[in-house]
Amino acid sequence: MDRPLGSGMVSPIEHFVKRSFGTWRAQRSGHNLAFRHVEEVESEIRIAPADQQSPQLAELLALNQVKTSQICCPFSVTWQGTSDWDENATSSGDCLLVPVPDTETTGRLLRSQGYTETIPAVGRYHFSDDHIFVLITPYERASAEERVWFATDDLRLRVALMRTSSGRGVLQASFSSEIRQLED
C-alpha cells in the first residue's frame, strides 16, 4: 500500500538506490534473438551518489522540466566491460540517473543516457509486491524492461528484455549477476 510522499520514512526508491552504492563485478548473459547469438559480458560497475550541484544534473532536470524539489537520491553509474562477441573491444560509459517519485513505490527515472539507445531517456518505475525494482523505458525504436533485485546485500540480480517499439516482439533477453566488491 502506498504511503503519501514525505511520510518521514525512507522510501523504497531511496532504500534501493542507497543499497546499490558501491563497485560491482557483473557477469551478463545476453541472448540476441535477431542475430541468434549468445553474448557473455564481464563488467565492473560503479554506482555512487551524484553531485547535487553538477551542471549535468541541472541540465537533465531542465530538459525534463523537473524541479529539484521533486527528485530523490540522484546517482551516477559508470561501467567498463568486455564481451566475448568482440574480444578486442571494451565498452565503457557513464550515466546520470534521477528518480522522480510519484508515490512511495512508483515514479519516473530520468537517464542522461538510455540503456537501449544512447540518448536521454525517461522510464517509469515501480516496486513489485516482492520488492523487485521494475523499470520500463520506451525509446524511439524499441523499449526496455528491466527487473533488479537483491538476493543478498552483496548480490544483485538483473533481468532485461529489449522489445520492439510495438512491445509485441522480443529482440534481446539478458540475465546479470552483480557481486559487490568489498573494500580491503
Brief rundown of the structure:
This protein has about 180 residues and is mostly beta strands. It has helices at about 10-20, 55-65, and strands spanning about 20-30, 35-50, 75-85, 90-100, 105-110, 120-125, 135-140, 140-150, 155-165, 170-180. Strands 1-2-3-4-5-6-7-8-9-10 form a 10-stranded antiparallel barrel.
Describe the structure.
The chain is mostly beta strands. It has one domain: Beta Barrel (Lipocalin). 10% of the residues lie in helices and 52% in strands. The chain has 2 helices and 10 strands; from the N terminus they run H-E-E-H-E-E-E-E-E-E-E-E. It has a 10-stranded antiparallel barrel. Strand 3 and strand 4 form a beta hairpin. The longest helix is centred in the N-terminal third of the chain and has 9 residues. The radius of gyration is 16 Å and the shape is globular. 22% of the residues are buried.
**What portion of residues is helical?**
under 10%
Mean pLDDT: 90
What is the domain total for the residues? 1
Q: In angstroms, what is the radius of gyration?
A: 16 Å
Which series of helices and strands comes N to C? HEEHEEEEEEEE
Number of helices in the DSSP assignment:
2
Strand content: over 45%
User: Under the CATH scheme, which architecture would be assigned?
Assistant: Beta Barrel
| Overall SS class | mainly beta
Strand order of the largest sheet: 1-2-3-4-5-6-7-8-9-10
Largest sheet: 10 strands, antiparallel, barrel
Morphology: globular
Oligomer: single chain
Strand elements, count:
10
Q: Please report the distance between the alpha carbons of the first and last residues.
A: 40 Å
CATH class: Mainly Beta
Q: CATH-wise, what's the superfamily?
A: Calycin beta-barrel core domain
